[in-house]
Design a protein that fits this description.
The chain has 436 residues and is an alpha+beta fold. It has helices at 19-37, 93-112, 163-182, 190-193, 211-227, 239-265, 307-315, 320-340, 348-367, 370-377, 390-393, 396-415, 417-427, 429-435, and strands at 5-7, 14-16, 46-55, 62-70, 79-84, 122-128, 133-139, 270-273, 282-286, 292-296, 303-306. The strands form 4 sheets. A 5-stranded antiparallel sheet has the order 3-4-5-7-6, sandwiched between helices.
Length: 436
Amino acid sequence: MLPKFVKGQETGIEFPTTIESLLEAGPDFLTKAFRAAGSLPEDDRVTEITRAKEFVGGGMGRKLLLDVAYERGDGLHRNLFIKFPHDYGHPLRELFCYPMEAEVRLYLLSIKTALPIEIPAGYFADFDHETVSGIVITERVAFEEGGIGPMLEKCQDFNLDDPLAYYKTVVKSVATLAGAHRAGKLGAGVGEKFPMPATQIEGGEVFRHSREVMDEKLAKIREYAAAAPQLLPKNFASKEFLDRFCNEVSLVLDHHKEIYAYINSQDDLVALCHWNINIDNAWFWRDAAGELQVGLLDWGNVCQMNLARAFWGMICAAELDMIDAHRRELMEDFVHYYHAGGGPKVSVDDFELSYRLTISVEGLLWMCDAPTIVEANLPNYAEMSGRHDPRLQNTFLARAQQHILTVMLNEFSFSNVSEIIPDVLSENAQLVAQTN
């Protein structure tokens, strides 16, 4: 049984493992925790919890909206957001909890070191690896208040008048952070706190599925396409496309170690970055000049990575027409702001090559189970009239998995890995040999 409190590995204090134990601990815990993290002065304290309401949304764990009062509270937020893992025994607890470990370190870093981008103000965070427990306490973003726009929904960019503006703003922010890291602006020890590669990213640095397992998953994708071709745009349900796709997957399986080795060897493209910055993991507002600005949420699995991974994590829920029209432009923005923020000067061609290879392994790993997940959450998926069928749109996991699957297929088609893998292997023979 999970204890009510565990000792945090970052701050050394005991923290509650569930919403219930936090409410039981009350203001005394919050005072001790905030002081330990450095977000509350020693001569101030939390005096009262004035409101507590569990928030149900997303799939990564339990969340709590908490309002507090302070003895003074100068400049402190009274409306807080608290994130826990799923309860003990939940089948997704460990899978979704491990990403919190890096997120904890990012928020603790942000309390002591000014970041060049906007994230929610951190108040306390900690993690215990032994019990797979974590907690993150931040300010609560006031969506639709004070000029902040509404909370955006995943895979529903078609509701936006100008989705490109949102992505360009996000690119500027994440690339600026990456540049600041490479320029040494985030302080000493960042490399140790956020190692690269991040071993808890699912799949690690080798493709986790055998060829036999992948054959089953590819057969499921074919079955999905045959049952519901109306859900797959362009020619993605055609035998011609799926034959090409499966042949390229086979090539990737032959060379996945070499592909990962190449991605991770591109030193100038490796920096601290957000791993999954879909625009629903952000908040937006306009400044006095009318320019769109962004703050970034959900920092699970933040780490040093090839920035092409972050680009895929951003673009994977976008609309296909926006991606096809502006992919290169967004890549140009990324390398520009990365360099402007203090990072190395890299070419767009090098960035694009890393992206194309990233799609062949990471994109595939993320989405090869999508048909199974859609079916589990919407058994009658084949009856949908199309992507915008209300039954699909109102089933979150089915909607997200169905759309991101189409993005992965789109980007796999763009990547044309059969064209680039031979060149990558021949130009990096020594590196390839070291991975075998």
